[in-house]
Amino acid sequence: MSDTCNDTSTGTMGGASASRTAMLEAGLAPYAAHASLSRGRRYPELPPAARSEFQRDRDRIVHSTAFRRLEYKTQVFVNHEGDLFRTRLTHSIEVAQIARSVARNLRVNEDLVEAISLAHDLGHTPFGHAGQDALNECMRGHGGFEHNLQSLAVVDELEEHYGAFDGLNLCFETREGILKHCSRENARRLGDLGERFLLGRQPSIEAQIANIADEIAYNNHDVDDGLRSGLLTIEQLAEVELWMTHYDAARGEFPQIEGRRLIHETVRRIINTLIVDLIEETSRNLARHAPRSLDEVRAAPQIVAHSEGVAAQAVALKRFLYANLYRHYRVMRMANKAQRVVKGLFDAFSDDPRLLPPDYQSPDSESQPRLIAHYIAGMTDRYALKEYRRLFVVADEV
Ligand code: MG
Predict the structure, then answer these.
(1) Does the chain have fewer CB atoms within 10 Å around its N or its C terminus?
(2) Which of 79-88, 97-106, 232-241, 296-305 is predicted with the least confidence, judged by mean pLDDT?
(3) How far is the CA of 92 from the centre of ligand 1 (A)?
């Protein structure tokens, strides 16, 4: 995984393509990730005809199979619980929207930030974190399972779309952004991509933005979905300062509104406050550290951040959600069921790999558990439930 080739450097680019790249990158700050300076793709490719390299990455992600599966993967609520809850797909789109707003203000690469945002959850198992925890437990002793690393495996190996290579062959900077965290052991295995975890260096500004945009998105849409489901109440949220400040402001401006309209007026104010604060504090950090290139961003401390006061408010909201929504007994019941499905599938396939579709049967027992993990991780919620019924329910379809 460590072999990248700098096929996209300006040095190898033709005149027309170089001037198109210059046009596409006009207005970017020096600390932004420039596609023309990319550390390249693992397999050399000709430059794209009418897009930047990062646009091409974004387009490959949107056209991938794993991206379409996100529609049927749980964020917090399982897909069949209601039509209006967030799924991994709508979550990823919201992350991209927030990240692009921030990126444009900071004059960094919107295409890259969008590519990272849309790809960041590609490796999620069915049933959200409950599914990942169960699969990690099953994979104990076989290298474990981590959705972040799985997202990378999807774009590096698992997608089967192109004649010349497995995976999507994305640029280094996109892959770097997808790999948000990783153990030292895995970092050593990942070569140049893992290096920063061993050296304590940062990823690009774009990757840092996508990471915080993820938190802004889920904190807000989980409040919204929590209220929609009735698992959370407005009265409970009175203890959350960030919520109350904007709830009062919304009521002050529109005393006649209530219900969903009032919730939305509150949530949009919270999102806006978090985005504006993130832009302002990051601008201060950029002025302080004055990075003149992506390399200097990597060597600096983390630059994209909330101010201390807003960060504390966001943490309080997160804690509230953890205690009141993610640990709600109705969420726990679904999580428990999900774990049973994932574990049941894993055990059945491990006991008899002949039950697996042929593509996932390994010639050697050593690599079989990882192939089973790939198969299960790729399932949508409803596919996993269907597969479970196929294996365990007598007289059902086969
Ligand atoms: Mg996410």
Answers:
(1) C
(2) 79-88
(3) 6
